[in-house]
Amino acid sequence: MSNFENENEFVNFLREARDPMDKHCLAGRFLYHYIHEPHVYKLFEKFTLELTRKRLKSSAWLVANRMRWEEQFSTEEDFKVTNDFIGLYARMFMARHPQYNNFFQVNKMYRIFGL
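Predicted structure:
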């Protein structure tokens, strides 16, 4: 379940949670990736929306692994899906699409206080 009303609230939370002095900060790394490689999230969103038409709940890992599978056969942009970001993609999706607030089960993230 997402704790956020919308995408802006989620992004603002991550901005507040990041540590600019820590280059390994998960919140900062995710925001950088989300801003500079938006096609990765768009693909996550596309495949998740396909799943919502068939299932009431699903796994963000299923979506991420489909992205990896599809990328192997694509001649388009090359990208990698970082495991560290999968839970954040799920939360972003649910924040962006509140009607699917319970689509993914998300667990507490110990690397970002408050998630």
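Summary: The radius of gyration is 14 Å.
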